[in-house]
Design brief:
The protein contains 10 helices and 7 strands. Helix 9 crosses helix 10.
Length: 198
């Protein structure tokens, strides 16, 4: 993502590149992204008045951050750290499955989270705004092979009706049904499709 590019710009660029280079159709961008975000307990956000990464940067020297094994080696971390001047009191690496338990127990103050994760709502976490749009978008898109695009244009038309239809809050709620209630992804999806089609 270059300076000044929006999420829509990135999706459109990917759409053009996939079609030109591989004959693949980007059928729909569903409306949510599963990007990295920085999450804190809502109580922490309220107490420290944290709404954005700029707010977090001012408080970071007194806070601990935990992330998965990959994040601290990724370009995203270097870019966001540089853009906001993030310098934490402590920086911990842990298994992704332990991040949410660690923040829930108060063992760390901030975690990196995937923005569509149902545990964000389940644990009353707040994802801080990346107001400078440094973190790249990871929009959920549906792709179709050249063969499917030729053979089943009706399928593509049906999928296109989902363009922008699922926001991050809806995706978190659906993911939460899978995580907490043990529903299959297909069963959770029915909670989205049934009311919309009724």
């Amino acid at each position: 993502k270059g300076t000044g590019e929006t999420r829509r710009d990135v999706v459109d660029e990917v759409r053009r590149w996939l079609a030109a280079e591989h004959g693949i159709t980007l059928v729909a961008s569903l409306g949510f992204e599963n990007a990295y975000g920085f999450a804190v307990r809502r109580e922490t956000a309220d107490r420290l008045r944290l709404k954005s990464l700029s707010d977090l940067a001012r408080q970071a020297p007194a806070l601990s951050l935990a992330s998965d094994y990959e994040f601290f080696a990724r370009e995203e971390w270097r870019a966001v750290r540089s853009a906001y001047g993030l310098a934490f009191r402590e920086q911990r690496t842990m298994d992704p499955s332990l991040l949410y338990a660690a923040i829930e127990a108060g063992e760390v103050d901030v975690i990196t989270a995937y923005t569509s994760d149902g545990r964000i709502d389940a644990l009353f976490l707040a994802v801080l705004e990346d107001e400078r749009e440094v973190l790249p978008p990871y929009d959920a898109v549906v792709l179709a092979s050249p063969r499917l695009a030729r053979a089943a244009p009706d399928v593509l038309a049906a999928v296109r009706s989902l363009e922008g239809a699922i926001d991050a809050a809806t995706m978190r709620a659906l993911n939460r049904r899978v995580d907490e209630q043990g529903l299959s992804p297909a069963a959770a999806a029915r909670f989205f499709t049934a009311p919309a089609r009724a």
